[in-house]
Amino acid sequence: MTNFVLVRYARKPESLHEIESVLRYREGMAYQTEVVETKEMTTAEYDSFVRRPLASRDWLAGKGGFRNKDVRLAIAVTAPERRTLYVDPSGSDYGRYIGMGIEGGIKYPEIKVQLTGKNGNVFNILGLCVQAARKAKLPQTEIDTFFDEATASDYDNALATCQRWFDCQ
Question: Which of 6, 61, 82, 121 has its CB 3.0 to 4.6 Å from that of 93, i.e. a possible disulfide?
Answer without folding.
Answer: 61
